[in-house]
Design goal:
about 260 residues; alpha/beta; 9 helices; 11 strands; globular; 8-stranded mixed beta sheet; disordered N terminus; 3-stranded antiparallel beta sheet
């Protein structure tokens, strides 16, 4: 969860801590930027990271491994490892802080770049507006925070519009909204203005306060029984609590819809 800026800057050290078999990434602060269970590195350890995979409910199970997945913000590389290693998708991670990339390679089992994996030391704000990336992304995970984790660093309507522009038709974005200075209503309204109110949903907050928003480009929501079948398939194949996600998914509140 890196700081995003167009200015050249010196990065503080990426550090780690370990507790009860779990390794945590920090950026020169107490805030956790990501985690990995040491003996189960393929397991998505943090609940909010698991919920960042809720986009799978909106896709046909037969196509889960198809297309291009992009993470804006590497964190401890959990989503990057999942998309590349378990889903076998072509995967790109965009991370501005070289210290985070080095830490993930050394401590968090991030593999080197290959035919399906490309980890870029770039600014996510620039990446999403690059014409070369227009409509090239099928799954976009956005988790962008600085070392204080006070609120999303990129969180305006222009940014979310650029995210939509990067998505191919039928593409899906998940965004982590968290922080003491964050506002779910403010951020969700910006996302809805960029994507359309009928293409935005949210999950109830985790106990830590992370709210995951799902936004889509031209996706039709299937019937409930189809969603339940998909959730069961996700649980069986990937050991993720998708049936719980389904219970937690909700449309945007009317207070936000009335503000559009």
């Amino acid at each position: 969860m890196p700081a995003m800026t167009s200015k050249r800057q010196t990065w503080g050290p990426a550090t780690l801590s370990e507790f009860d078999g779990v390794r945590f990434l920090h950026l020169d602060s107490i805030w956790v930027q990501g985690a990995m269970r040491i003996r189960k590195p393929d397991q998505l350890e943090l609940e909010y990271i698991q919920r960042m995979c809720a986009w799978m409910l909106w896709r046909d199970p037969a196509t889960l491994g198809e297309g291009h997945a992009v993470q804006l913000g590497l964190g401890a590389a959990a989503l990057t490892r999942f998309c590349h290693g378990q889903l076998k998708m072509r995967t790109t991670a965009v991370e501005i802080n070289p210290e985070v990339i080095a830490a993930c390679r050394q401590w968090f089992r991030l593999p080197g770049n290959d035919a399906r994996l490309n980890v870029l030391n770039e600014d996510a704000a620039r990446w999403v507006v690059d014409d070369a990336n227009l409509q090239t992304v099928d799954v976009l995970n956005v988790d962008l925070y600085d070392h204080d984790a006070a609120s999303p660093v990129l969180d305006d309507e222009a940014f979310y519009a650029a995210c939509r522009g990067a998505l191919a038709d039928g593409g899906l974005m998940t965004v982590n909204l968290f922080g003491r200075s964050a506002s779910f209503a403010r951020s969700a309204l910006r996302i809805a203005k960029a994507f359309g109110s009928d293409q935005v949903w949210s999950l109830a907050p985790t106990k830590e306060g992370n709210t995951i928003v799902v936004a889509a480009r031209g996706v039709q929501v299937p019937h409930r029984d189809v969603l339940e079948q998909r959730a069961a398939n996700i649980e069986s194949r990937f050991k993720l609590p998708a049936r719980k996600w389904l219970r937690l998914v909700r449309p945007l509140p009317m207070s936000i819809l009335h503000a559009l």
